[in-house]
Amino acid sequence: MKFGTCLLTRDDCLQHIGEHFQPVIDGLENESALNVAHAVLKDYVFVHLINYEDKFNLLIFMLQKLFSLIDQTSVPDNPDALQNQEVLLPGHLITIYLKEKLEDWLRKAKKTIQEEIAKKNNFNFLAVSDVKKVMDRNPSAQISLAVETMLRTGRLVTQTGLDLQQRAGYTVQAERLNFLRFLSFFRAVHRGASFAGLRTTSVRKLLPESWGFLCPVHTPDGEPCGLLNHMTCFCRVTSYYDSQGLVKDFFDIRKSILNILTGLGMTSSLPKLAQGGLPQVLSVLLDGRVVGSISSSEIEKVVAHLRRLKVLAATVVCFCWIFAIFSIIFFFDTNEKRINLV
Fold first, then answer.
1. How far is CA 94 from CA 101, 141, 179, in A?
2. Helices (DSSP H) in 48-189: which residue ranges?
3. Number of domains observed in the structure of the chain
């Protein structure tokens, strides 16, 4: 039953979501509200998780974290910390920019054809010549031209912003003063042009957790100091390939990490298992997914054991962040040192 705006069942919630998002999502105008709701949950809410149950558990965890922050039982996340940053690779930037330009081109092509059909000037949609004549008004060469302009000038011409903090300064000219200077451009990681004008020094600090990932001395003097850093010699950006060029089996890696955590006393977050609450237990997250919880009394032993595993070459647990102040443990599934930076 539904009383006013009260949502009491799962179908009520899906219907409510679908009705509100259907007008703003292209391509789903003729779909039912339930299908629209499923599309929203799948493509826009925690897209790294496939299972609805995992999405729900992560949402609950975020709410618990918010309440603990308001109650001052936890500290806010530090945006300058390495764990809250990621690398924007050239391939990632070109891919999302190309995707947006393709969507813009298709949207213009659709509008042009619809206008031609509405004019009723003997336009035959099944005739290649008629369609080609209309499509010539919207040349596809503008897509590649936009990408070339971005690579040449380093400036993004976008209406959405692509969820990026800046729209200029994405390319630099590699100086060939010497070989080491030239190679350093390919290991450089810049925090972003938007931070250059800030008067605070917090964005430029080298925090202890950056040790082994960012070089503590390879940063220039002056304005870019602390903003333009360089990866250490053994640091690699996470990819789908290992050091031998083979595709990683992430399922086995996650399984190995879960076995280690279970052996250390972690209780799995299976639906039918009773879960404890804060502050008796601390939640464990693996690749952005709540996988279980560990008793607060055992957390120090778990942390010490994971740190020992971190320095072993044969282990799959190479890097972890422990937040004893609040209930979360992050793991990155890889057998080499990796880095995530903005």
1. 10, 16, 27
2. 52-70, 90-119, 128-135, 141-153, 179-184
3. 4
